[in-house]
Amino acid sequence: MDDFCEWLVDCYEWLLETPGGKAGTSSGGITHAVSAGFYRRLGTGFSSQSHSSKHNEDILQPPDIMASPTFHRFPDLPPELRLKIWEEASAGPAMHVFDLCFPSWRGAERSRRAFEDADGNISEDRRHRWEEYSRCVFLDKLETGPRELRRATRVARHAHDPSAYRLRGALRLACVEAGANVSRPVEENVVYLPGRDEKIAYDNAEDVLFLRFRDSGALTELSQGVLFGEFDASGANSLGEVLEGPWSAEMASTLHGARKIALDVAETWTLATVGTVMLEEVAYLGCCLQDGLCVLYLVDHCPGRCSRCHRHEQNAKRLQARGELFRQLHCMTASEDGVREPDVIRGVGKTYREVFDLEALGWTDTHPSYVFARAMDETLRSQQADADAQSFQGIRILVVEDDEVDGLDTTTLMDCNPSGAEDRMAAKAWDMSLRWSS
Questions:
Q1: Distances (CA, A) of 190 to 46, 133, 137, 185, 198
Q2: Which of 144-158, 175-189, 193-207, 209-223 has the lowest mean pLDDT?
Q3: Where are the strands (E) in 142-219, listed by range?
Q4: Boundaries of each 2EXR domain copy (predicted)?
Q5: Quick one: average pLDDT of 368-391?
Q6: Cα separation of 270 and 425, whole Å?
Q7: Whose CB among 17, 119, 181, 389 lies 3.0–4.6 Å from 86's, allowing a Cys bridge?
Q8: 105 within 8 A of 221, measured Cβ to Cβ
Q9: 185-188, long-range: CB < 8 A, 24+ apart
């Protein structure tokens, strides 16, 4: 981001020295590319020009930020500066977030909405696809907006989709220059959204596929639905086929190809009436994700925004110390170096930063999320070893920071730690940890 600011300063200085020119190969202005903070940073630059001998309409004037967030002189920039800005706008690693839709005893409303239009209707063509996918697990774009924010769940809800694939799609349509900088990756993975009959390709070597189950307990529900035979797996003649039974063919292909996957850490917790994620369910999920997987991220939305768990003042910079829990999770000794730059994943209005201080997150060796992380780490490594394809690098924890974006509501709501739930969950997690360690 510092490089980006330097490039914008170069743009500003160049425009100050250059009379209004003719539009280049790009057309129109660039909207929402420059935040109000950027102009405040350049305040001295604007004031230094205010005493020029003669007012010239061709000289760039201080913009009225409240009146217009559009940078109209963008086409007049030198091509190399425009290209640098487009490159920065589409740079990765990036986060792509999708909802998992699947058959549920709670109903099929979420799966059905994936096939509905804005008025809640399903066309004849979509109805045929809905009948085909109604008993399958498939992916859909992230649900956002007022209705989503009002939902009662401990999983994070967003006013706006932070997925980078939507920004990159818009950049491809902006102009030829922007489209050229959002080129097809060398190694790509494809996500299919059957409700919209849409395919989305992303950089599989660098970007992260974030799977959202939408509710704590949904992960358990899906796993048990397969393990206890609640989903139709007719014709299956092996354990692998049974485990893969409810997944749509496109969904299975996406998961088997994904190198980096993220889950909401809140989804590893469940209410006491449902029970915690058990070993069999961890094994099932690991079986679905392990093929070629390099990193599994657990995303924590609480630090910096949630006051119920007393972590609203935390941020990634304060969570970089490597403690005993981190070393146990990664099978390291105190004498091992383990120094590695934290991962930074970019979204739209969100930045996902890796942290190492698990104790400061409130985790203990019996915390449900930590028990899940250790069990999943062991499961993935074991399954890849059995397949003689050991590419897994470990479980990594990300916290989410909000970025200010002009004209974009980046609100994210949490309903963390319902009254008394933490103690009940910890007791169940301790029972699970004993089973896992035995």
A1: 46, 18, 16, 11, 10
A2: 209-223
A3: 157-158, 188-193, 198-203, 208-212
A4: 71-160
A5: 85
A6: 7
A7: 181
A8: yes
A9: 187/259
pLDDT for residue 8: 52
Dihedral sign for Cα 317, 321, 326, 332, please. Answer: positive
Q: Quick one: residue 380, left, alpha or beta (phi over 0 = left, psi -120 to 50 = alpha)?
A: alpha
Q: Reduced to 3 states, what is the DSSP secondary structure of residue 263?
A: strand
Helix extents (H) in 57-117:
79-89, 109-113
Q: Per residue in 302-312, pLDDT tens?
A: 887 765 666 66
Could you tell me where the DSSP H helices lie in 182-296?
A: 218-227, 239-243, 249-257, 279-289
Residue 244 has pLDDT above 90, yes or no: no
**pLDDT of 214 higher than 80:** no
Domain spans of the chain? 2-89, 95-437
217 sits in the region (left: phi over 0; alpha: psi -120 to 50; else beta) called: left
Phi, psi of 97, rounded to the nearest 5 degrees: -105, 135
DSSP strand pairing (138-141 vs 95-101): antiparallel
In single-letter form, the type of residue at position 146 comes to: P
Give the integer Cα–Cα distance in Å for 363 and 356: 11
> Taking the model in full, what pTM does it have?
0.74
Nearest to 331 by CA among 389, 296, 377, 384: 377
The per-residue pLDDT for range 108-166, each reduced to its tens digit, is 788 889 998 888 888 888 888 888 888 888 899 998 888 888 877 777 888 889 999 98
Tokens of 172: 């491809």
Of 238-252, 337-351, 369-383, the range with the lowest mean pLDDT is 238-252
Using only C-alpha atoms, the chain has a radius of gyration, in whole angstroms, of 24
355 pLDDT above the threshold of 90: yes
In sequence order, what E strands does 38-78 have? 70-71
